[in-house]
Design a protein that fits this description.
Elements (H helix, E strand, L loop, with lengths): L5 E2 L10 H9 L11 H14 L3 E5 L2 H12 L5 E5 L3 H4 L4 H4 L4 E5 L8 H4 L13 E7 L12 H13 L3 E5 L3 H8 L3 H4 L5 E5 L10 E5 L1 H13 L8 H33 L5 E2 L6 E5 L7 H10 L2 E2 L1 E2 L4 E5 L6 H16 L1
Parallel strand pairs: 1-11, 3-4, 3-5, 5-6, 6-7
Antiparallel strand pairs: 2-8, 7-8, 9-10, 10-13, 12-13
Bound molecules: pyridoxal-5'-phosphate.
The site of pyridoxal-5'-phosphate has 12 residues, from helix 3.
Length: 344
Amino acid sequence: MNPHIIDLRSDTVTKPSPAMRQAMFEAEVGDDVYGEDPTINRLEIRAAELAGKEASLFVPTGTMGNVIATKLLTEHGQEVICDSRAHILDWELAMVSWFSGCVIRAVETEYGVLTWDKIKGYVKPVGPHWSATGAIALENTHNMAGGRVYPQEVIDDICDRAHAQGVKVHIDGARIFNASVATGTPVARIAEKADTVMFCLSKGLGAPVGSMVAGPKHLMDKGRLLRKRLGGGMRQAGILAAAGLLALEDGPAQLAEDHQKAQLLKTRFEQLPNVTVLPVETNIVIMDVSATGRAPKELSAALKARGVIMNGVNDKLMRAVTHRDVTQAECSAAADAFAEVLAG
Ligand SMILES: *Cc1c(COP(=O)(O)O)cnc(C)c1O
């Protein structure tokens, strides 16, 4: 990639730091399908600890983590409740149905945040005419709603009431460390009442590859088999886990800065004519550009010509994501470029 390009497409674009590359170089490895990769084993113990769960599983992608978790928490023919713009619904190739054999029940929300009040009318017991609810999936932070953070009491309340009806709860916590930093709540506390949680090492935390899914040991044991079925038995993947361990150690402390950079973008974008910026709580900035009379695709192309890459989400919204490989000054330059594009 051209070093002068300012890449705000996603926090997945972060490259491994020199320390990570060194750790990868030195990683002790073994065959993980036999459970013999010491670095993966360390990562799985550490991730479980941070998530406050008995065990965890290293998976190649967050998508695979969500797929394994929803399969573990449901039976064929059940429903999974999530919000209408959830990653598991919009960006995971219908794996809830394709792999788990479940139907998604999508619930409208303002900013991706479900509440028990919104969910309760859709929760169904076993009956002769409908599919029962198997699980509820909460996305924290919420990607398409602009990095929204769930209030802790809302998560706790949903978990308590769901469990009272025998319904499980999964947290799609791809960016749960951003939620943790934004609220000062440990990840283990955020996920305390949820059955399973997935989080990505490969986003703001900076690892090149990998996500974790955490939960009770008996479920993670089953999850290991599902991971193999999905083609995720990765052998000497300790070279990846070594980067993941560093991501967990050093990554969270850097996220506060990403959030500051997102606030800078928000402040600057708000000054652009006819651009409406959604509330920004973490590292994702979503803005509605429909009033500019220009399509996100067209604006993206014009920005790219000025060295800034930022994608449209749909025909109205554009998204900018801050991360450790973009500086405050580059964020500022990106906003300047946007102003030029809109003036031109
Ligand atoms: C990125 C992301 C995932 C997983 O993505 P992968 O690209 O498969 O690692 C899952 N959920 C949310 C909310 C995400 O943003």
